[in-house]
Amino acid sequence: TIENDYHSDIAFYSKNLFDRSIEERRIIGEFEGALNRKEFVMFLQPQVNAKGELYGAEALVRWQHAQRGLLSPAMFIDVLEKAGLIYKLDRYIWESAAQKLKEWKDKGAEQYHISVNISTKDFYFVDIYEIFTGLIEKYDIRPDRLNLEITETALMSDFDKNMEILKQLQEYGFKIEIDDFGSGYSSLNMLKDISADVLKIDMGFLRASENEAKGMDILESIIVLAGKLGMDVITEGVEMEKQLTMLSNMGCGIFQGYYFSKPIPTNEFEDKYHIF
Ligand code: C2E
Ligand code: MG
Ligand code: MG
Ligand code: MG
């Protein structure tokens, strides 16, 4: 009966909630130790042109857990954000990226950038300007090699203040990338108020648009618009050749997706793309 279904739904739902809160407490409890033991690792996913030539890389964290194996960010980023701990992980990954760029520079490969993710919570807990400019000085690397990814949703949460910080970073020489564009609500209006360098079209937006005439028109319009506003466009989540062809025809020049490569360990990345 409907009533039974209703009750079993609730039971299922609360069991899930219960399991989830145990899981969350476990992650929070293990976090600092894992960070000290260097269980968090920076993977790199290539961003390439249609020929597959390297444009840059995105740093994506994985947790090499002693008992549970390799954990994906979906399992812990939200939890760490809620717990006010994400800034500790992010600082670590930002520094890993800066270190890697320094190594590449010393080995004569200064042409590639690494993009790092910034969580909206980071703005509240640390001085982002100081951290990033500090990394540039400490590692003696170019600011336009350590790109900053921020989601449109994160930006919207405190637009004026966060925008101001990003503008200062941009003046210092950093490149700003709008991540997951098309997954939020504020999309087009926001482009007027922000001068980002790169627009990253969300994978979900690509999926939702690609098999529908109207969706394709919108996708193409956004690519054209971004170009007019002077931004590079990267489409995320490209898995199939026909997507690559479609997006190329629409004027998108840079791609990030499994069609080319999943995020991989840095040494594999360096081999695959002959970084040095
Ligand atoms: P994001 O920044 O939008 O990163 C892109 C995500 O899409 C990555 O997931 C990547 O592996 C995935 N992806 C790329 N191409 C494809 C594809 O062709 N197919 C599919 N199915 N997926 C693809 P990942 O690594 O699991 O990271 C998920 C999210 O976690 C990231 O989304 C980002 O928001 C967050 N994240 C990852 N690393 C960090 C970090 O160091 N700090 C913070 N604050 N967030 C991070
Ligand atoms: Mg990102
Ligand atoms: Mg994204
Ligand atoms: Mg995302």
Describe this structure in words.
By secondary structure, the chain is an alpha/beta fold. 52% of the residues lie in helices and 20% in strands. The chain contains twelve helices and ten strands. The protein has helices spanning 2-36, 77-82, 86-106, 122-125, 128-139, 152-156, 159-172, 187-193, 203-209, 213-228, 241-250, 266-272, and strands at residues 40-48, 54-65, 69-71, 113-118, 146-151, 176-181, 198-201, 232-236, 254-256, 264-265. Strands 1, 2, 3, 4, 5, 6, 7, 8, 9 and 10 form a ten-stranded mixed sheet that branches. The protein is globular, with a radius of gyration of 20 Å. The chain starts with a helix and ends with a helix. 33% of the residues are buried. The structure holds ligand C2E and magnesium ion (3 copies). One magnesium ion binds at residues 58, 117, 149, 179. One magnesium ion binds next to loops.
Number of strands: 10
Distance between the termini: 66 Å
Helix content: 40-55%
The assembly state of the depicted protein chains is single chain
Strand content: 15-25%
| Cofactors, ions, other ligands | ligand C2E, magnesium ion
* Total helical segments: 12
- The geometry reads as globular
Structural class, from secondary structure content?
alpha/beta
Largest sheet report: 10 strands, mixed
Q: Can you tell me the residue ranges where pLDDT is under 50 for at least 5 consecutive residues?
A: none
SSE series:
HEEEHHEHHEHHEHEHHEHEEH
Backbone CA Rg: 20 Å
Mean pLDDT reading: 92
Keywords: Membrane, Transmembrane, Transmembrane helix
Domain EAL: 24-276
Protein name: EAL domain-containing protein
Organism: Jutongia hominis
